[in-house]
Amino acid sequence: MRRMMAAFVALALLASPAVHAVQPDEIMSDPAKETRARDLSRELRCMVCQNQSIDDSDAPLARDLRLLVRERIAAGDSNSQVLDFLVARYGEFVLLKPRFERQTMLLWLLGPLLLTGGGLALWLQIRRRARSGADLPAPPLTPDEEARLAALMSDETKRS
Amino acid sequence: MIAESGHYALVLALGLALIQSIVPLIGARLRDDALMNVARSTALAQLLFVGASFVALVMLHVNSDFSVANVYENSHSMKPLLYKITGVWGNHEGSMLLWVSILALFGGLVAAFGNNLPLSLRAHVLAVQAWIASAFYLFILVTSNPFLRIASPPIEGRDLNPVLQDIGLAVHPPMLYLGYVGFSISFSFAIAALMEGRIDAAWARWVRPWTLVAWIFLTLGIAMGSYWAYYELGWGGWWFWDPVENASLMPWLAGTALLHSALVMEKRNALKVWTILLSILTFSLSLLGTFLVRSGVITSVHAFATDPTRGVFILLILCLFIGGSLSLFAGRATSLKQGGLFAPISREGALVLNNLLLTVACAVVLFGTLYPLAMEMLADFKMSVGAPFYNLTFAPLFTLLLLAVPFGPMLAWKRGDLLGVTQRLLAAGVAGLVVVAIVWAWTRGGSALAPLAIGLGVFVIAGAVTDLVERTGLVRLPFATVLHRTRGLPRSAWGSALAHAGLGVALIGIVCETTWNSEYIATMKQSDVAHVAGYDVKLDGLFQRQGPNYREMIAEFNVSRDGEALSVMTPSKRSFTTRGSSTTEAALLTRGASQLYISLGDANAEGAIAVRIYHKPLVLLIWWGPVLMAFGGVLSLSDRRLRVGAPKPARAKQRLQPAE
To answer: Name one GO molecular function term (chain B) (predicted).
Structure first.
């Protein structure tokens, strides 16, 4: 069920006969460039799929994008130039890792903010409570409790 | 007849649920035992009727009764029997029926085995369960009735989506739902506690086994789904940070936090308010997951807008339950007394840290899943949040968490000695560092991150072992004593050690698979040989075969290593005539924990075929880890102290155990 929606979408888009992600004929002859192309592909979204990178997707559009990425790399673009090119063409939607911008700032900062904020709040609370607790002297044990404690302790030594 | 009976049974279940929603509460208000006991019988009767309704749908599918729309749309007379049955929950209506069936099952279990609960608590819990049940029965009956008939029945069905015709799908959704829905019990307990205004350590003891059961199923369900995606979708990926996956991961993260905070509450009577809040949040996230998956809102906001009936209905349920429970919480939480003081460095402190990290991780996933939706609706800004984002934000949080894991169980309650624990964990730390050095030397030139992560995994496993060694007194005590102590060690101690070790195991698998995965993509002709990670894979030939409801093209590969023949692998491509779609059946060769993975692409006119071969080192550890965690959960569940529930005060003395 979890992948069901994705599978449905993928299948719906799949023009039969089925094609596969990264076809043998797409691969660049220079292994270093091919590696770069693969790394970039993993960060780019296949826009007609549900949350799939163009590296994973079977859709024809993903293939076009993979070829486009390789074309730009072959033309001598740097990684960020390739990404800029694609964003200029298709918008921020194409990036699976959103850029740090005004609109995405909250998304990126949420984790660190929550962690430091939460950590700080907890630390202060625990310290305050520990201190207020330390001020109160522990009430002495009643004779009944003393007896139970003694029974427990002897039980404990027998056990180990 | 069967369809009508199933439909009628569901309506009756709704009626029973409505009674169960109200009568026990009146009973609790009037302190009338008979009225409160109504909850018990209605819960059991509800289970009976929903069960009957579910069986009716299964029978319709098995009989291939195509006069029922749900069967027509998702079944085929030639489909193997197993997939006729599993096809019941391979679609929206059927899966919602499974959802309420499991909800009724949990309600029935509380009714049947909750004899040691105070009567009014049980009445409240079952009433809250019935609220949830009523809402979802209504949802099914109004928007997603699986028993609808077609006026002029077709002769043949449209078949189930081929990707779903797989044994993995037979197991995955029921497991996942047992997890999702299982958290409804802790939710109901939390609401009951807020309504009664009474909560104590005994409450935590009642809640913990139920939470644990749900957590075990959710863990296995997620792992199962991940393995299914790995072998069925044909490109060897096992986690995609897809919103649908996130929907199951969020309750898991919150549920894991809940397990740990309930522990503090049970042992030390602290963190009460937080535990209640987590119970509410965990089930709310389960509901949110159901909403995300069932409303189609993630596929696109527009798809949601064009057919909003179901989506809006679930959204209403969502708002009602989350909003209602949180308001109740806000109103009542302050009246709950906090107890159990502890120093920052203590077992409690460690568990609080665990909760902080898990909650933040959960919030990050929640935000990542919903942020793009919000931006599109509010700011008309289309953006994506995918795997690279989550990897970047999730990894640091889990690194911190894993670093802390070995320390937690070794710290004392109330006030711990960090320095002492560090000394005791020295051996584990050294083991981790040695592994880092070995892996780094072995894979010279690679990134330093992978060896470090593997070292962290080893540290977590070694830490769990150290914990057990310390508790049993292995090495430092005479053998007979060790044996005695091993036998006396509570099973929950074994359970938590195993579960923690499972984290380390999974981490090692994840790192190895992502870092040293080798891949070979090419078009192969007959007798071509591919060399992948030391294996020689030779294509022997292609042939066709007819299956029950598909045709398949099989490629036969001979796999050998250093001239020694190992195995024959036969990946295939199936085309399903009814839906005109096809699936890739990958072939897997397991060697230890590593796997060789072959999947097929297209054949061309000259008889050559596109092939992808992967070698995935230690990939199976990714799933062995969760299995180990779940096994730890089962061990913990079998612990006497959890099984017997909360001890009655008079007998408490006999049950006192040495503090862990």
So the answer is: heme binding
